[in-house]
Write a structure and sequence with these properties.
Number of helices: 7
Helix content: 25-40%
Number of strands: 10
Mean pLDDT: 83
CATH superfamily of the largest domain: Chorismate lyase-like
Length: 239
């Protein structure tokens, strides 16, 4: 059987390797702006098309990201968004060695719509507590959370401070609820203008949407939440 011939690496692959080597050696750190297409083309004596392909592939792989009108930047390392269905944001950030803060954007009572009632196993019109929060990690906004809670399981929660800023800790410690399981789904979505403003993103921008239905030991749903993570910073780990 004839041996396969080894072709020389294409120029764009060589440029990718050179850029990755500089990132690995700390020449460029996460958040740093790298050279422009024109500067890279001049430095490495490669065509604009070759440089563009290398940058496009590194961007698609999540290693670089472009900011319109500003340049190309080294992406922050991606964190696993899927810490676990019953781990609070504050506990998750502590586990990662990061500080955590939560900003309450809105909180009020609503009546369950037909769709909400079906998801949570409630009667249509049942009272729900709606919360919308901005999650901040080490000073940077990273996610927007919307949460609907079965009010009969946590009456008066709107009048309380969350224990350590954590909703799950409040449900456990204040209301004595035994959280048992969480059903999760994840998908990629595009940010709207309000989400982009809150997360300091430039449109178009990708978000990672993680939806969770949190259940008690009895099988009763206590919470249905939606977390919109910055797509450039998070990934889902499948187990």
């Amino acid at each position: 059987m004839a041996a396969l011939r080894t072709a020389e690496r294409p120029l764009y692959a060589q440029l990718k390797e050179a850029i990755l080597d500089e990132i690995a050696r700390g020449v460029f750190k996460p958040g740093d702006r790298i050279q422009s297409h024109r500067e890279l083309s001049t430095r490495y004596k490669m065509s604009h098309m070759t440089v563009r392909r290398a940058i496009t592939e590194l961007t698609n792989e999540g290693l670089l990201h472009a900011v319109s009108g500003k340049g190309i930047y080294v992406a922050e390392p991606k964190q696993d968004a899927d810490a676990g269905p019953l781990i609070s944001f504050h506990d998750d950030m502590a586990r990662r060695g990061m500080s955590a803060d939560t900003q309450m954007l809105e909180a009020y009572m609503v009546s369950a719509s037909a769709a909400q009632a079906q998801i949570m196993g409630l009667e249509a019109g049942a009272p729900l507590v709606h919360m919308r929060r901005l999650f901040i990690a080490s000073g940077k906004p990273i996610a927007i959370s919307t949460t609907d809670l079965a009010h009969n399981l946590c009456p008066g929660i709107l009048d309380r401070e969350l224990v350590g800023g954590s909703l799950f800790a409040t449900l456990r410690d204040v209301y004595g609820l035994r959280l048992s399981n969480g059903k999760r789904t994840a998908e990629a979505v595009l940010a709207d203008q309000e989400q982009a403003d809150l997360l300091n993103l430039t449109l178009p921008a990708a978000l990672l949407l993680v939806e969770q239905l949190t259940l008690l030991e009895t099988g009763q749903a206590v919470e249905f939440g939606r977390m919109f993570f910055r797509g450039s910073r998070y990934r889902v780990q499948v187990k």
